[in-house]
Amino acid sequence: MVAEDLQPLSIVENSGFRNMIQLLDSRYEIPSRRTLGRTIIPRIFSTVENKVKTLLNQAKHVAITTDIWTSMNTDSYITMTVHFLFQTQLKTLVLCTKKLESSHTSVNLSEIMTEELNRWDIFEKVVAVVTDGGSNIKGAVRLMDLSHLPCIAHKLNLVVQNSLKLSGNQETAPSDDTEESNLKKLFKKCRNIVGYFRRSEVGNRMLVEKQKQLGCESVLKLKQDIHTRWNSTYLMIERLIQLKEPLTIVMITITEAPSNLSSDEWNSIEDIIPLLRPFDKLTTELSGEQYPTLSTIIPLIRGLQSSLVSKTPKTPLGMFIKNKLIENTNRRFDSIEKQTITPHFSRATLLDPRCKKVAFGSEQNANETERYLVNETAALISNASNTEQPTYQENLNTDDDNVWNFLNSRVTNVQSQTTTTSSATSLMRQYLSMPHQDLKCNFAVFWNDHKTVLSPLSDIALKYCIIPATSVPAERIFSKAGQILSARRNRLLPQNVDKLIFLNKNM
């Protein structure tokens, strides 16, 4: 109960809880806080830890997400989540939530992460590590000689932040661009309106009453945005539009209320919302944990670009933001299909039976991805054949004076290479010739069903499908951590924080 419901250990000392247990069963002896923290929770932790080890031992490949968080006590924690296939089901588990006792350098972070991966005996199984754009965490992954993938949610956040100029103090910074200046003024007025109604008891009460008078289906409250989260700005202006009528009526009757938005400003907001909505939906779609997300990045980004181009804002400010969003999206995701630093995106897309080559924006990139996957498949076929049987060369005439040995060895090598490459090419053609699957198709189930026919291409596909598109799974853990390290639990030892988060997510 303590782990699952994030209750403080001191609950066993609360009189209300003790009276309730006494009423339910007077014979039951409630364990002390000391017993709970030092005996019961560690025992349960050990049981769950063994179950996790068993699952990870069975996993062929794993992917990792990680992030760093600062608690209310200004202590820094690093968390690591692991993602893998169990039969045909994607599993997400927490490996650790460790307190950082040293500076957050790449060297220190790499040592902590390496130690943790070795503790679970999965270092050699790691396909990729997904993190945000922090130079220290990216450097740590490079030091570990593992593949690093950027969090797509963070990249999308930067696209919108830069387009809306949300980074920095946009309310006071000077600007030569008229539309940029108008945008800053518009957001400032929106924040002033929201801030007033959130502070004023009279204003808030009148807004609630007016919604009821107008027969609104549900009573809504205004939302305040946070500069570091673009979607909070989107939610703020979306809520303002929803409450436009009651808000306008109430603001007319309150003398101390801030200036209301003009007709042009309301029109600008109505233009901005449809431009931001696809980003919000895309972020939500890519942040899932129960289904493969890496293979959907390219088609969804192409869909986002197509959606932005199709929008027709009616105001100058709307056109300004549309152009900025298109420009920043193209720049941030320009090389996402290429086989350069992060080829995982394109390879996962090509191996998604719903996407294949049609999801690519460039046919050349699709063909290049196919070529690399054929080589990767050929290498697996070659390794498998070398493992199963000794090299033909060993069975040749071992006489050093045999003048035919040179030709025989060359022919053997050529035949071996030709066979593996042609087999890999044949597998790829067979897969690409299959009908495209429905969007509801389960990626893992498809490849598991075709494992016999398309192996080892199926192994490669299943390897890529476990990689998350974002580092959101690690960030979600800190939502739990924030509930655990609350005012009621501020004396918890770091190791107990780790245990409670581990149990909460893995039980």
Structure keywords:
507 residues, five-stranded mixed β-sheet, 58% helix
Tell me about this structure.
The protein has helices at 15-24, 33-58, 106-119, 135-143, 152-164, 178-199, 201-213, 230-242, 244-253, 263-286, 297-310, 316-332, 344-350, 363-388, 405-433, 443-449, 451-454, 457-465, 472-484, 494-506; strands at 62-70, 76-86, 89-99, 126-131, 148-150. With 507 residues, the protein is of the alpha/beta class. It has a 5-stranded mixed sheet, with helices on both faces. The longest helix has 29 residues, at 405-433.
Query: Can you tell me the residue ranges where pLDDT is under 50 for at least 5 consecutive residues?
Result: 169-174
Report the strand count: 5
Shape: globular
The main sheet comes to: 5 strands, mixed
The first-to-last residue Cα distance is: 11 Å
Give me the secondary-structure category.
alpha/beta
β-strand percent reads 5-15%
Query: Major sheet: order of its strands?
Result: 3-2-1-4-5
Helix coverage percent: 55-70%
Number of helices: 20
Condensed summary:
The chain is of the alpha/beta class.
Describe the SSE topology.
Blueprint (H helix, E strand, L loop, with lengths): L14 H10 L8 H26 L3 E9 L5 E11 L2 E11 L6 H14 L6 E6 L3 H9 L4 E3 L1 H13 L13 H22 L1 H13 L16 H13 L1 H10 L9 H24 L10 H14 L5 H17 L11 H7 L12 H26 L16 H29 L9 H7 L1 H4 L2 H9 L6 H13 L9 H13 L1
Parallel strand pairs: 1-4, 4-5
Antiparallel strand pairs: 1-2, 2-3
